[in-house]
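Hi support team,

I'm opening this ticket because the web form for multi-chain structure prediction keeps timing out on my end. I have pasted the exact lines I submitted so you can reproduce it. The total is 746 residues across two entries, so I didn't expect it to be a heavy job. Is there a limit I'm missing, or should I split the entries? Thanks in advance, R.K.
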Amino acid sequence: MAELSGERFRVWYRLSGDAKTAREKAEDICVEQTVEFPRELVQENAAGVIGQVESFEMLDPTHSLACITFAAETVGTELTQLINVVFGNISLKPGIRVERIELSAGLLGALKGPRLGRDGLRARLGVLQRPLLCTALKPMGLAARDLAKLAYELALGGIDIIKDDHGLADQSFAPYRERVQYCVEQVERANRETGYRCIYVPNVTASNHELAARADFARRAGAGGLLVAPGLTGFDAMRSLADDDRIALPILSHPAFQGSMVTNPDNGFSHYALFGQLPRIAGADATIFPNCGGRFSFSCEECASIAQGTLAPMGHLKPIFPTPGGGMSLERVPKMLDIYGRDVIFLIGGGLHQHGSDLIAACRYFHKLVATM
Amino acid sequence: MAELSGERFRVWYRLSGDAKTAREKAEDICVEQTVEFPRELVQENAAGVIGQVESFEMLDPTHSLACITFAAETVGTELTQLINVVFGNISLKPGIRVERIELSAGLLGALKGPRLGRDGLRARLGVLQRPLLCTALKPMGLAARDLAKLAYELALGGIDIIKDDHGLADQSFAPYRERVQYCVEQVERANRETGYRCIYVPNVTASNHELAARADFARRAGAGGLLVAPGLTGFDAMRSLADDDRIALPILSHPAFQGSMVTNPDNGFSHYALFGQLPRIAGADATIFPNCGGRFSFSCEECASIAQGTLAPMGHLKPIFPTPGGGMSLERVPKMLDIYGRDVIFLIGGGLHQHGSDLIAACRYFHKLVATM
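Hello R.K., no limit was hit. The queue was backed up. Here is the completed structure from your submission:
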């Protein structure tokens, strides 16, 4: 017989349909995500692992919110299986959206969470109050030396975090190792001139067998953080990099390939859970997402909810930085400050290049704009 | 300057909106998935990597199909970056669905693809013509010995492939290593009695640092295949297991956590691409998906399109088995044969248990039903 400690964690699901349909969906989730077996055939020795509907309320005539609890034992200690219990098979069923996850003490205890979080990253960068400035090295197609030249100018202009564009992997025009080496050199050179502590953050999203080696190379080369797209690598791969004490670098989470989880309001995840909670659970120190008003389609309310997910209490898991980007311009900085407050990383890529022909001047303008906030 | 060989691969996207909107979307994909930079600022040395719209046709007044080609160099050789170019950032934009992927010779050459494919798996199981029979060990909550007892009965009844339910990970009630050991023993015992060559396929979906160790343990214990949910591990993790010559076991791909990619018809992937092409690209020998008429919501046309994706020419990538399951009953077997033909793995889980109180008899009935096909 399955021995259960009584420890349970909670997941809130938003369900589509009238009250009867939604209640059936809630009961279905309890079974589908655990025993996945006709309920009437589940014998006593397994019945305890079936999920339980703790609360149910109608939000409007066609949507409801159900809180379902699961025995911690259904997960064990692995993040892959946690995500599987939260939204594995039921991702294939329409009308179910994960709104919020509340982990139990034991499950939280199995997670290290973000290594630095907001305070740790601020301390490392020596920027204690103002919003942090981030940009991306691009476009793909430039040679490593050209990207490094850009990195130098961006660092000279006062950017705090210079990350690879997420499309820079290990292509022939700018191979990973060469790129990392050159970019670190140029950012360090700029730091010597400015006295700033800008970091270069290479994209280590890579083949499964290459991931740890890329991260280790980055560390040895002197990179200041790692960019990972967990939609491509799996969330647990990001966690494994975050947890690695030999690497000990801050992690920026990139949303590539995760969009379909939020484009249908009746299936997938809330923005809060997908871009606020999950990256934090998986050890990221900052979560990149497309800001409202840019070239993507998130609303300002959705973006604000992500920021809430980065900060809401989750045991010992540190708050992390919301990092809105995606077609942002310098003109939108004040509006972004309204939404996020000062605990934010502003990610502006192409917008810096569009600000004028002098990239260093554009960065300095950006830096000055934010420094007074 | 980015040196390009001229090798390009094709992706067909279904776009929402009128002709003007859709054409703009197509042009946007070309930029967003490559340089991710204002087109007017991209200089000659990077411009070659921007995608190109090869063809565009309206499907109906609000949907179109665009074929976009990308330079092979945008990918390099990594599956993570291939998926990123196909649907990384644009997953975050509404109204874009990947219909079909046509890899170039060089990219195909970098992939091993399925180790066994349909013919190889048939040869290994000694079943050359009829559909293959598969079931899942469940429910979660049973002890390893109880699951192994079930495995014995299922194998005795003539099932070809006994896989773990995808919810069985490394939980306290049936720890992975114990479960694998017992289940292999009991399946081998049944095989000695029947003369069949049933295989046990444990679920190795696990933490990133555990994945290879689980697979290796399975091989050494005598398991006959591996179950992986690439939505949880990342596609490349599945590929790494498939490519590993020391393991050399067939791979079953499970769709957990991938559902949101297909629940919105205007964003994500076609069933053909997500469940037919991608698992094959990532080295699976069989692709599990919810059959029409079961407890999920795929239509029979969508299921048939998956089967097409498992078979359509893709260079040296072997055809793989469509493996419809998800609330199937024995009564639906003839209908499934209509859809899939004989090159199919029938996955029936709870349905075998619902067929009557004698599990072995239910399996024998299933076996006989299929043997005459």
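A quick check on our side: Residues 8-109 of chain B form a domain with the Alpha-Beta Plaits fold (CATH 3.30.70.150). Let us know if the file doesn't open in your viewer.
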